Amino acid sequence: MISEPAGAKRALRAELRERRRIRPSAERDAASVDLTRQLIALTSALGPRSLACYLSTPDEPETRPFLAWTAEQGLEVLLPISRDDGLLDWAPYDASDEGSDVIGMPVPTSDIVAPIAINDVGLILVPAAAVDRTGMRMGWGRGYFDKTLGSMDRRPPVFAVLFDDELVDELPREKHDQPVDGVVTPGGIQRF
């Protein structure tokens, strides 16, 4: 039997996927420019020497221009690689070729580092389907980031990357869901 929050999350994810799929390309391009500016502002304000981010899929807010900026700044960036067991490996961003992981997500082709390397970053940027105004993050249902964030003893600031309309008033919650410290959208940065 599926719990009520799980069913509500599944329906909301389907709606959000469709909204992302039909988002006009001109709106997506403008969002990319603004989001890059916001991600640079957050990173500059927090001043981490290293951070974790991800390579966006075609329907997600675009992270590659920001990642190019991190390379120019000499920042160390770890990118996630999904594993068959539901956990994440990490690999350094090297601004070169991309591949796909076991679930078809874009990943770097650089060598994998020890999974505990995530414990040394000063900022984590995570994908999300939506985040509510209390900081509760709803991912896409696979639990990779919830497991990672929930297993960390010392978590650096964690910010979800979203489109502006994906910051919502309230989301269904389950006990394994992990909150974030803030969101970065094309329209700005919000801390919780």
Using brief descriptors, characterize the structure shown.
192 residues, alpha/beta, Rossmann fold, 3-stranded mixed beta sheet, 30% helix
Explain what you see.
This protein is of the alpha/beta class. The protein has one domain: Rossmann fold, CATH 3.40.50. 30% of the residues lie in helices and 23% in strands. It is built from four helices and twelve strands. The protein has a four-stranded mixed beta sheet, with helices on one face. A three-stranded mixed beta sheet has the order 1-2-3. Strands 8-7-10 form a three-stranded mixed beta sheet, with no helix packed on it. Helix 2 packs parallel to helix 3. The longest helix is centred in the N-terminal third of the chain and has 22 residues. The radius of gyration is 16 Å and the shape is globular. The termini are far apart. Keywords: ATP-binding, Ligase, Magnesium, Metal-binding, Nucleotide-binding. It catalyses: (6S)-5-formyl-5,6,7,8-tetrahydrofolate + ATP = (6R)-5,10-methenyltetrahydrofolate + ADP + phosphate. Its cofactor is Mg(2+). Belongs to the 5-formyltetrahydrofolate cyclo-ligase family. This is 5-formyltetrahydrofolate cyclo-ligase.
Task: Set down the secondary structure blueprint.
Elements: H1 4-21, H2 25-46, E1 50-52, H3 64-73, E2 76-82, E3 88-92, E4 98-100, E5 106-108, E6 124-127, E7 130-132, E8 137-138, H4 144-151, E9 158-161, E10 167-168, E11 182-185, E12 188-191
Parallel strand pairs: 1-2, 6-9, 7-10, 9-11
Antiparallel strand pairs: 2-3, 4-5, 7-8, 11-12
